[in-house]
């Protein structure tokens, strides 16, 4: 009797994946925003997971200067695609996607990291239960002799602005979710500088939580990083400095920090 081929079920799985399309909805509850720069290899899986967050989900793919067919793939799968022929700049895709979003809950993720729908749903559920901002509880590797500058910047900013989520949870990190109310207060443009968006949320008393952990550090594709300085690290640290400057401008030179009883008038 001939043996049953094991390749057939696998082929069926591939076919189901190839035929996957997002169910259309006129009134989305959740908008999942995915900026993409030449990430066709992972984008299909990212979209499939994103589309399963809620029965009424719209998936918005911001094709940020992509030339590898990412936009065409997203369109075939039923995503709303915003096309920009030239790169907009790091995180600007979040702003553009948020401006187009129709959902009451907005989730931000990236096209090169496949995040399971259950993880995205956990953040959506936190917003639905009252949070304005639901952050990934991933803090980055801190128990190292030399901690990465971005990890230090996240912790320093949260300490300075007294973020209720505390430690290193950050709007720089994907995935995270915000409410429509948070979007209205923060403003679409400010989402292009995630640490500033977070500082604005804190200043306006928005409810910020870090309800769920998603390991994204090991899966984060490193772009253009060889030996020597990391341009993306410099950019993100610069974003945090911009956020601190904004916060100090709103709260005073000490950023609401106590002066610890110093008697400055006694200094000669």
Short précis:
The protein has 268 residues and is an alpha/beta fold. Helix 6 packs parallel to helix 8 and helix 8 (194-203) runs parallel beside helix 9. It has helices at 7-19, 40-50, 70-76, 92-100, 117-128, 149-161, 180-186, 194-203, 231-251; strands spanning 30-36, 57-64, 80-84, 105-108, 133-136, 176-179, 208-212.
Q: SSE layout and pairings?
A:
Elements: H1 7-19, E1 30-36, H2 40-50, E2 57-64, H3 70-76, E3 80-84, H4 92-100, E4 105-108, H5 117-128, E5 133-136, H6 149-161, E6 176-179, H7 180-186, H8 194-203, E7 208-212, H9 231-251
Parallel strand pairs: 1-2, 1-4, 2-3, 5-7
Antiparallel strand pairs: 4-6, 5-6
Helix pairs in contact: 2-3, 6-8, 6-9, 8-9
Q: Helix and strand succession?
A: HEHEHEHEHEHEHHEH
Given as residue ranges, the uncertain stretches (5+ residues, pLDDT < 50) are none
Which shape, going by the Cα principal axes?
globular
Summarize the biggest pleated sheet: 7 strands, mixed
Task: Provide a count of the helices.
Answer: 9
> What is the share of helical residues?
25-40%
Spatial ordering of strands, largest sheet? 3-2-1-4-6-5-7
Beta-strand content estimate: 5-15%
Helix/strand-derived category reads alpha/beta
Taking all residues together, what is the mean pLDDT?
Answer: 87
Rg, nearest Å: 21 Å
Tell me the number of strands. Answer: 7
Distance between the termini: 100 Å
